[in-house]
Amino acid sequence: MKKLGIMMVAAMSFMGVIAAAPAVTTPTAQAKTKIAIVSKKSMSTQKYQIDQSKAKKAYAYKSDMKKKAFKLSSGHNTVFYAKAQETVKAGKSSRVYYYIKSSTNSKMAGWVWHGYLMKPLMAKSSLEKLVAAGQDLNPSSTILKQPAAFYSANRAYLRKEFNMTGQLTNFKNHQARVYVANSALKTYTQKAMSVWNKALGRTVFVNGSSSKHDLVVTTKASKQWDGLNDGEHLYISSTELKDKSYMDSVADTPEIRALYNQYENVADAYKRAPSDSAEKDAYLAQGHTLYDQLVAAQKAAAPSATAYWEGVIMHELGHSLGLDHTPYLTDIMYAETSDDGFSSSVNGKYGWDTPKDPNDSRLESPSLSSRDINRAKLGMELGYW
């Protein structure tokens, strides 16, 4: 899995998935609607904010529930305090309203349907502390359990801190239809799809057809990359797919990296040594020995072709879920460098040229780390799939 890429083919704006507000009949001053306050009681003081995704055209009302007090959209980011609630019957419908009041603006006070309220969003400073205390590039369960407004408010920050790309492939109702145009890739693709679906606890990738699909899996000749995703096509290198010896060159373990670095150092020393010298002959012999050891180590650690290509397709499907690369060998989304020169460079938390977990071997099988899974879940919350 040495060469895996993502091509961002266009600049996009990402608005996220906004939950639709339930159909609610707000009391109005219409004479035909009879409004009655059924019950009223005090409540322990609670803090709320207006859920702007639901209350775009809604109002708070005065005590008679007929006159408007203020438009809820004007209370963006305002913290309100609620101390009383009442049940209001408008026609045949009953709704629970809270009396809310801003501590900084006395004009922002009135009765609001409780469905337009939400607990105050986490402060940016609190979010930054939470990210700093958590595992690198791995969103915590707390971050993944916030209201929709939280992801809208912190979209750019979350995208940067967790190496997200944004929406790449078209999804409808959190599903993408995948059509495998090359039969040689069908088994690999089905496995990759099923692993992602199981990890995310829902059917995200489904089988598409030649006429109805969101992503086409096929081959394309290349020696630059093993897999590449442009949002509409997931390409696998036909050049490497046909090469029966290719698996003998893809393994990436601490032993292999150490031998490779030694070989490179000896090769440099050989170039610098005087011509026709005993020193140069010694470096040449040492280089041959290291090369043989390197080849043997790669063959010993070589993955099966099935496991390898399933892993490559899983990596590329991760891009469709909005994930960019990471510097962790144990992630399916690992890349050797944050800017390899052939795919879009990572515009994330930081750049890298070496792995962050050098004592580990590269994941070259159809499996996922907790970081892969949690970042994918964050992608859904951000509206990328």
Explain how this protein is built.
The chain has 385 residues and is α/β, with parallel strands linked by helices. Helices cover 29% and strands 20% of the residues. The chain has nine helices and 13 strands. The chain has helices at 124-133, 148-153, 155-161, 186-200, 238-241, 254-272, 278-300, 305-320, 370-381, and strands at 4-6, 35-50, 59-61, 68-71, 80-90, 93-102, 109-113, 117-118, 176-180, 205-207, 215-220, 227-229, 233-237. Strand 6 (93-102) and strand 7 form a beta hairpin. The protein is elongated. The model is unreliable at 9-30 (pLDDT under 50).
Task: Chart the SSEs and their pairings.
Layout: E1 4-6, E2 35-50, E3 59-61, E4 68-71, E5 80-90, E6 93-102, E7 109-113, E8 117-118, H1 124-133, H2 148-153, H3 155-161, E9 176-180, H4 186-200, E10 205-207, E11 215-220, E12 227-229, E13 233-237, H5 238-241, H6 254-272, H7 278-300, H8 305-320, H9 370-381
Parallel strand pairs: 1-12, 9-10, 9-11, 11-13
Antiparallel strand pairs: 2-5, 2-8, 3-4, 5-6, 6-7, 12-13
